[in-house]
Amino acid sequence: MQASPASTSDQPEKGQPDQSSQPCQPQPPPSDQATEADEARQRYLSFWLQMNKLQPKVTLNMAENTSVQGIYKGTDAQHHRFQVDQLETPMGTIEHAVVRGNDIESMEIQF
Predict the structure, then answer these.
(1) Residue 101: which CATH number?
(2) How far apart are CA 53 and CA 91, in angstroms?
(3) Which of 37, 57, 83, 111 makes the best surface tag, with the fewest CB within 10 Å?
(4) C-alpha dihedral over 44, 107, 50, 70, to 10 degrees?
(5) What pLDDT digit, counting tens, does each position of 23-32 carry?
């Protein structure tokens, strides 16, 4: 048996576009809207990073004029759940709690 020689041709394989004949075109600069959106996203992520680092005391205002307080510990990526330690509720203190984001109407942060 003879081994077939490796193809040394610069031709593209069948069905593949010829990349060499297409000039590389520079991308247009990002629009002001894209830049503003990027900056807003960066500020948003920085806020949550600082919240995780500082672990401030928070007051969670919930349905039916209920307020609970505790120490913020973290949240999931979608902000569906918030971990709060030393959660002071009308029924007592819970050492470690996870509060559903849908149950929170607003969050007050004490730095």
Answers:
(1) 2.30.30.100
(2) 29
(3) 111
(4) -160
(5) 677 776 667 7
| Domain limits for position 74 | 55-111
Which residue, among 94, 54, 46, has the nearest Cα to 72 in the 3D structure? 54
- Whole-number Å distance between alpha carbons of 99 and 87: 10
How buried is 104 (Cβ within 10 angstroms: 0-12 exposed, 13-18 middle, 19+ buried)?
middle
Token digits for 15?
Answer: 């069905």
Whether residue 99 lies inside any domain: the answer is: yes
Cα separation, 103 vs 66, whole angstroms:
10
pTM of structure: 0.68
The amino acid sitting at 67 is S
111 in a structural domain: yes
Cα–Cα distance for residue pair 69/88, rounded to 1 Å = 5
Domain count across the chain? 1
Q: Would residue 102 count as lying in a domain? A: yes
The answer to whether position 16 is within a domain reads no
